[in-house]
Design brief:
Structural class: mainly alpha
Strand content: under 5%
Shape: elongated
Helix content: over 70%
Length: 254
């Protein structure tokens, strides 16, 4: 039965993650093609300025970067407000994801502005309202990133994957497996395994096999992993015989 598209269909992180994973390669292709076309026009097709000469061409990078630095901050504020007002987890996740890109564009705007300012104004920096506000914007981005990274949210993320991560994909499985290897906390490790059990992806099975084969994995844990892998890959017929072979080897079946 076909799923009806609703306004909040992709408000679920699991659904949005699957959609984003599908669209990312196409967005990369479009971004690279448009960037190459814009740089070609700006650096090779646009005529030389009568006053500034070729030095003015830096504006074809500086102005879009400055524009994007402010637009991304507005988008961050919007999604943060949506997440806070309606308790939508995707709002906070989008705000968090936008921050590094906004900080990068702000840095590029300041850096290219200095290179443009030296031949145009005779100085690398002046403390006027535009430059100072852009510098403050960079500090705001850095402060937001530092604050969010300082908050320990690993267990909440793993708990979410354990409950809703069936469509999370390979990158989430690798992250859960990496956290399991790096931590000795029993509860965090339990959540890592629960997340890997939930994720319906070949990478999750490979991570479970890797954990099974580690020397420090105890016998009870190995038994639990083997039982889970056997159930998913053999009883439910979810993988091919080639993929099932490592599972059969750890579960003791021929």
């Amino acid at each position: 039965m076909a799923t009806t598209m609703r306004l909040f269909t992709f408000a679920s992180p699991a659904r949005f993650y699957a959609l984003a994973g599908t669209l990312i390669p196409w967005f990369w292709i479009a971004a690279l093609a448009l960037a190459a076309a814009g740089l070609w026009i700006g650096f090779f097709q646009a005529p030389t300025d009568a006053t500034q000469g070729d030095a003015y061409r830096i504006i074809f990078i500086h102005v879009p970067a400055a524009w994007m630095s402010m637009v991304i901050y507005l988008a961050m504020a919007f999604w943060a407000a949506v997440g806070w007002a309606f308790n939508i987890r995707m709002g906070a996740m989008l705000a968090h994801a936008l921050a590094p890109t906004g900080a990068l564009f702000t840095f590029i705007a300041l850096w290219t502005g200095a290179f443009w300012g030296k031949p145009a104004w005779g100085t690398w920096w002046v403390w006027d309202a535009r430059l100072t506000s852009e510098l403050i914007l960079l500090f705001l981005y850095i402060g937001y990133i530092a604050l969010t990274e300082a908050i320990d949210d690993v267990r909440r993320s793993l708990q979410f994957l354990a409950e809703n991560g069936a469509e999370a994909g390979g990158s989430a499985a690798r992250a859960a497996g990496s956290i399991f290897t790096r931590t000795q906390d029993t509860e965090t490790r339990r959540l890592c395994l629960s997340a890997l059990y939930k994720i319906n992806d070949k990478t999750a099975r490979n991570e479970l096999l890797r954990i099974y084969r580690e020397e420090q994995t105890n016998s009870d844990l190995r038994t639990a992993i083997a039982d889970h892998l056997r159930e998913r890959t053999i009883d439910e017929k979810r993988v091919s015989p080639t993929e099932a072979k490592p599972v059969l080897s750890v579960s003791g079946q021929p």
